[in-house]
Design goal:
Helix 4 links the parallel strand 5 and strand 6. Helix 1 crosses helix 5 and helix 3 packs parallel to helix 4. This protein is globular. With about 210 residues, the chain is of the alpha/beta class. About 40% of the residues are buried. The protein contains 5 helices and 10 strands; from the N terminus they run E-H-E-E-H-E-H-E-H-E-E-E-E-H-E. About 25% of the residues lie in helices and about 20% in strands. It has a single domain, classed as NAD(P)-binding Rossmann-like Domain (Rossmann fold), CATH 3.40.50.
Length: about 210
């Protein structure tokens, strides 16, 4: 299996590359800035918006770890994913996306999303809304082998790797302490498990700590 991690120089991208590399998988890091290449693996320096199918055709799994912040930039979550979907329509490669938590439901009737709750921070609404729109558009594609992986509400860049997690579908998960939490490291464990096993093609899943 050959795995490509796009936007690999970010915090989550690096965790994904590290997890795949430590398992002995054939992983390549795609980075935009040649000064931010990832250690211990091959790197390809190319902006995600400049990718062609020839750049990624030899990879069984492409993991999209793209991130953009600031109200003027969050639209890129939609445009970057639209570009990748265009490249992979009708192709055998699998596309795994580092998604958002805002579009997860917080009730069993699946009517209220996390982004719609009163306590959702105003500062994160534009990002969450853009990621939700990107997911909604992605979910209509039957000709792309996608898997959208949402983290829990608290997504901890500095949290420990326990190697354990729980999986859900589109409802917000809580752990034994009643918290909706996952570390970047354990999220990477779950993502690379999905890359290896392919159990949720054309589905959205969510990851939480136990």
């Amino acid at each position: 299996m050959k795995i490509a991690v796009l936007a690999a120089s970010g915090k989550q991208g690096r965790k994904l590359v590290e997890e795949a590399h430590n398992r002995g998988l054939d992983v390549t890091a795609f980075v935009r800035n040649e000064k931010k290449q990832v250690e211990n693996v091959p790197n390809i320096v190319k902006d995600i918006f400049d990718l062609t199918y020839d750049d990624i055709k030899d990879f069984d799994v492409i993991i999209d770890a793209f991130g953009a912040w600031g109200d003027e930039n969050v639209i890129q979550h939609q445009t970057s994913l639209k570009h990748l979907v265009y490249l992979l329509k009708g192709k055998p490669n699998r596309l795994l996306i580092v998604g958002g938590a805002g579009s997860l439901y917080v009730d069993s009737n699946r009517r209220v999303r996390l982004i719609d709750t009163p306590d959702f921070p105003e500062s994160g609404k534009s990002l969450a809304a853009s990621m939700a729109k990107a997911f909604n558009r992605l979910s209509t594609h039957k000709d792309v082998n996608w898997t959208y992986v949402s983290p829990s509400m608290i997504f901890d860049a500095d949290g420990k790797r326990t190697g354990e997690y729980q999986l859900g579908s589109d409802e917000l998960l809580k752990n034994a302490d009643g918290k909706s939490y996952i570390s970047y490291a354990d999220y990477a464990v779950a993502m690379i498990d999905e890359a290896e096993n392919g159990n949720h093609i054309k589905e959205r899943i969510t990851v939480g700590s136990k």
